[in-house]
Amino acid sequence: MNRLEEYWKANTSLIRNLLIVWAVVAYVLGILLAPALNGIRLFGGPPLGFWIAQQGSIYVFVVLIFVYAARMKALDREYGVED
Amino acid sequence: MSVEVWTWTIVILSFVLYLGIGYWARVRETAGFYVAGRGVPPVANGAATAADWMSGASYISMAGLISFLGFDGAVYLMGWTGGYVLLALLLAPYLRKFGRYTVPEFIGDRYYSNLARVVAVIAAIFVSFVYAVPQLRGVGIVLSRYLGVDVATGVWVAVLVTAFIAVLGGMKGITWTQVAQYAVLITAYLIMGIALSNLLTGNPIPQLAFTFSDFAVRLSELQVELGFKEYVAPFQNLSALNVFLITLTLMVGTAGLPHVIIRFYTVPKASDARWSAGWALVFIGLLYTTAPAVAVFSKYNLLSTLANKPVEEVRQIDWVQKWEKTGLLKLQDKNGDGILQMSGNAEVNEVTIDRDIIVLSTPEVAKLAPFVVGLVAAGGLAAALSTAAGLLIVIASAISHDLYTRMINPAASEATKLLIARVVIFLVVVLAAPFGINPPAFIAQLVAFAFGLAASTFFPAILLGIFDRRMNMQGAVAGMVAGLIFTATYIIGTKYLGWPNFIFGITAEGIGTIGMLLNFVVAYLVSRATPPPPAEIQHLVDDIRIPKGSAGAASEH
Question: How does it sit in the membrane (chain B) (predicted)?
């Protein structure tokens, strides 16, 4: 496997991992498990399932993109393909 | 000063600002016209993307929509933000590395086919047009509600302002006006959200007030008491399957909308496209995390102010009188007992509230200074104008760049190309006006179309173009055509021809996900049954996968 293929593989596995988090937060916690999570209330606020679906998921999405950008910056440098 | 005078002043000042920026950012070459010379810093591009993305509907209607849907309103919140994750990870940096001007151009070049180019041009024009019309109308509505201007006149004002900025400065003019428009719209929205949150909870930060107060639960209980559905419980208004599929369609559609994608062509480097998507979501998130708080607080306030109160007492309230006049709020004492009954049962319900009131009435309900009302109006205008401009340049560049320059007259001089681009954008903007004045269908329904079609055509074609080296012309074209026909047929059939939601009860808003899956399957099968793409295309794919070299791309044209 050459260097570029290795770089691409590292990139796609990073994407895969981040997309798993994305899907779990939005679709598993925010939708599928929302009825169950609504039984939990943190800090006297809204039910957890509702809070994740309407607020928490957005914070996670922002973090995912910045983690990706930072990790890719390191990866670009490691493989000498930075622009 | 009166509310009217404040509103006129702020609206006119903001328009002068936009026109000034439009004039300052005028361009003389096509790279400036189409991709702002690729000189936009990532943070500024994030703000421009946020303004481009957040439409008049996000600004004026979304909080109201959420407040009526309760939990299920999450489809908009997660759907319209989660798509940026897909965009940042799967599309933006590679499209920036590819480094041309438009989305159809990527599809046409990657699939070495003018047929693919034309399919993409048609889809880009259709998606953008469908989305642009309600924006123009949004400007007309905001101007008419706040300033008493005729809706048609308001639409023409929008058209002329947009045409001026776009014709002179193209993408460069649009980008920098969008940065200013973002500042105006977010300031207005946050002032409104902060004041409302402070008034009701004593906590000025709407996100914290939403998270740490029990208002959502109290609203939920009040709704149940009045016979409405529980606010915080999922799947009261949409089935679980539809919540799932609509969210996914809106996410994938967001990632596939050409006016959002082309914003990432304007940053200097491929790595900047990744950061820029993050900044875009930060700026969008500021509004999108405020909206559910505004939805809860204003709905609670509306219900507790109006329900079971004497009609005469309610009619004394200033904002009630004002909104009753516009027809957006209707009070009818059906049983003649002098008390307003509010109920989930339409037979006994005596208060009808238009969803748009939730945001539009907030400054008055929260008794904010008159200039805030003007600022909210200007924010609504900024949201609608910035999105309209972003969409119209997609249509204009699809015609002038992809059809004219790439297919009809590739040898045209720089001056001719620029002239054609300017004439086309002027014509597109002016031709859109009559549709804005008399839109063919309800605003939100039209927007659902745009997402379904973007999700079922562009997203798979672009994604496969980057991640599947073996994907060829035959596969991509067959996939796009299958996705487009399937999705359009289902939406038109179920929305307008009275067909039932015949696939598992999936609504028109969520069908784009199925169209996307169909596109993937057809594209895969057809591509594997036909010859692989030529070697130079496979090299092109290898090339866009690495950021190296993207910084110099602007000079290649």
Answer: Multi-pass membrane protein
